[in-house]
Amino acid sequence: MSWKIISGKDKQTYNDFFFPSKLRESVRKFCAEQLAPHADEIDKKNEFPEMRDFWKAMGEMGLLGITAPVEFGGTGMGYLEHVIVMEEISRVSAAIALSYGAHSNLCVNQMVRHGNEEQKEKYLPKLMTGEHVGALAMSEPNAGSDVVSMKLKAVKEGNYYVLNGNKFWITNGPDADVLIVYAKTDPDAHQRGITAFIIEKGMPGFSTAQKLDKLGMRGSNTCELIFEDCKVPAKNILGPLNKGVYVMMSGLDLERLVLASGPIGIMQAVLDFAIPYLHVREAFGQKIGHFQLMQGKMADMYTRLSSCRQYLYNVARACDKGHFSAKDCAGVILYCAENATQVALDGIQCLGGNGYINDYPMGRFLRDAKLYEIGAGTSEVRRLIIGRAFNSMFK
User: Fold this and answer.
1) CATH number for region 8-133
2) 337 annotated ligand-binding residue
3) What share of the chain is helix, strand, coil (3-state, %, to 5)?
4) Beta bridge partners of 227
5) Which residues bind substrate (predicted)?
6) Domain boundaries, the chain
């Protein structure tokens, strides 16, 4: 079946209220047919054999470069549309949505924002169609939240840089054809000595280790990247030399915004499953949803989801208008992530014993939700960002 969403050029024919609704409807139907039948097996087996076909289907639909310019094969939409797409994919499989976010935001968005014309023309079209999978590599075994302490080195030799070291916890690492990798080009300059490079699968000296066996987000392949005298052409530098921290941080707020939609999708999935269950399961002569304590659970889950969703959409709309706030981008993923974990716990409680067995998806929802309190900066780091933003107002 052929899929295609409305392009950004055609968006102007719809009003701002109607268009996101049509987009949501299209993505929801697409995921129900193409992804939902595989979601449980993806989690159980920690793999998605049909991943490449699904990627190309997303490319055909126009989802892989949703904020990328039309001239490079993107859809040319905004971040409100991006978070809606991410939310709907997460509602079906948070793991595959995470891989989607790593591709469409972490990789493609950085390429769009900082790539030169030659780089964009070379890499973006295949990333848009789904022929190539994208990734971003920032973290290392001893450099997670403290990312500027990274050890991966890039030493200039003629028209090349030779990379030695490794990266860890890299989403899409085992599958990626194109990766944006950060390395130290001036070890003595601390944060002013980091540079972003475009790495291609198959470059001599670049390899991937065995994928990680994670608690959640299973099927979103994650691994260690290994660089052993990997020669990278100097023309593959993304952005200015030694300005990698600027490249990195300029995209981090948008990364947090887009990934905050993952918890929204998970919370919606919990409600999709728990609410009907409460009105089928009977105890003491009535549906358990009619007990006041269960009504309280339903109310808590619903209000948590609704408040998180509105916060997310408000921040996305602000970003689309050019109003970027590190405080709110950190705040929205902090709030959504912690609420998603609580909603998943409440969902398990609603199902009682059935919530604790793997015949039901509640355990998957909880395991997947927890990742968002860790990735893209931990909850603790997000609180620091918000606190520092307020402190900076009183200097």
Assistant:
1) 1.10.540.10
2) no
3) 60, 15, 25
4) 165, 206
5) 145, 246, 253-256, 376-377
6) 8-133, 136-246, 260-392
> What angle, 0 to 180 degrees and rounded to 10, lies between the N-to-C axes of helices 292-320 and 261-278?
160
In words, the CATH class of domain 136-246 is mainly beta
Q: 156 φ, ψ to 5°?
A: -75, 130
Tell me if 116 is assigned to a ligand binding site: no
- Residues forming beta bridges with residue 154, ordered by sequence position: 163
Sequence-distant (≥ 6) Cβ neighbours of residue 143 within 8 angstroms: 149, 150, 151
Q: Which residues contact 32 (CB under 8 A, 6 or more apart)?
A: 92
Place of tokens 């960002």: 385
C-alpha dist (Å) from residue 126 to 110, 120, 395: 15, 10, 47
Whether residue 13 has pLDDT greater than 80: no
Write out pLDDT tens, residues 297-348: 999 999 999 999 999 999 999 999 999 999 999 999 999 999 999 999 999 9
- Using a 10 angstrom Cβ sphere, with 0-12 exposed, 13-18 middle and 19 or more buried, the burial of residue 258 is buried
Strand partners, 283: 286
Do the domains 8-133 and 136-246 sit in the same CATH topology, yes or no? no
Say whether pTM exceeds 0.90.
yes
Name residue, tokens 């269960």. 294
Residues 6+ apart with CB under 8 A from 43: 93, 95, 218, 219, 361, 364
Confirm or deny that 377 is annotated as ligand binding. Answer: yes
Q: Is 171 annotated as a binding residue?
A: yes
Structure tokens at 158: 């003629």
Who's near 370: CB < 8 A, 6+ residues apart? 215, 216, 341
Please list the active-site residues: 255
Tell me, rounded to whole angstroms, the distance of Cα 306 from its chain centroid.
Answer: 21
For residue 230, the cross-strand partners are 163
Dist. CA 55–CA 291, nearest whole Å: 44
Q: What is the pLDDT of residues 370-394, one digit of tens each?
A: 999 999 889 999 999 999 999 999 9
**Is 195 assigned to a binding site?**
no
Q: What are the distances in angstroms from CA 351 to CA 70, 276, 345, 356?
A: 46, 11, 10, 8
Report residue 167 as tokens. 């990266």
CB of 100 closer than 8 Å to CB of 89: yes
Domain 260-392 classified CATH 3.30.420.40? no
Please tell me whether 223 is known to bind a ligand. no
